[in-house]
Amino acid sequence: MLFRRGVGILACIGVALVSSAQTTWPVTEGDAHLSNFHFQTGAVAPDLKIHYRTLGSPRRDGAGTVSNAVMVLHGTGGSGKQFLSENFADQLYGPGQPLDITKFYVILPDGIGHGNSSKPSDGLRAKFPRYGYTDMVEAQRRMLSEHLQVNHLRLLMGTSMGCMHIYVWAERHRDFLDAAMPLACQPTQIVGRNLFFRQLEIHAIREDPSYHGGDYTENPPAARTAGAIVSLLSGNPLTWQKDNPTRDDGIQNYDKTIERRVADANDMLYAVDSSWDYNPAPDLAKIHTPILHINFADDPINPPELHVTDELLKKVPSARFILWPYTSETRGHGSHTLAVLWKDKLADFLRETERPKQDR
Fold first, then answer.
1. pLDDT tens digits for 270-299?
2. What is the per-residue DSSP string for 244-291?
């Protein structure tokens, strides 16, 4: 439940061995309970739970500043667990890899409304406070500083929604970051087709006769519609053709493809709506954090032909933009989690932004 009185900043911590195709990862899981969390809307949560996973151990310099923390932020409807997958973890966390967990302290939080963090389906349903990206970033900051005792990030990474959260971080808490790597987003408010597909999901759920203002007894069918919309926008034509080469393949794959994207309708609605307060464009020139931003040419959610990201990032002297070409190896919007594509760029970026030893 979201509202639990009398609980301060507590943790329920456990260590689990999580296996992917190549490696078993020693993951520590826990919950940060943030007391008296104030949302932008004025609502207050006496106890907001933020779930997290960590790998590795923090290291501090002579001044007590954590020097090796890397936080990775997930996309809309996702969770930190997705960064333990073969496509991500097995490319990044092993010995000699860019985020080698013998050197880095990797933090994978579940955002408000997602994963095992406080969310509408915990019981409040449509009475859960409306949250935005500013709220989600503030919860991440409090989780780090109050609970994990992390006072600095060597690197902040984020995919899709997490990519957008980076710009909120860079404008509001710029001294907290050494460097940032956003993947698959635009540094401006959501408009155009991106806004329309989000509104389509929201209206499909709210206008479903079985939604009942959020007090449904069974998940409304519109949740599947919303899941189908996201599925269609997450790949590229080559991927869809390869995975569904015949009509029979497509019919057989339909249900399992959609089911991967379906969650509780209230959780989905809130998550899609949470971008309502996002618009970093007016303050981009204030950012001084080194940024390596990668978008993908086959991403229909962030169409490269709009030239939004490359033009806006000209306002940020510390930012570099890469548009990854559309190839048979990319996966549309989902390329953001296919680390084999861009891990060498990450390794180079970490070397470029490494602080001199006397500054550590």
1. 999 999 999 999 999 999 999 999 999 999
2. --SHHHHHHHHHHHHHTT---HHHHHHHHHGGGG---GGGGGG--S-E
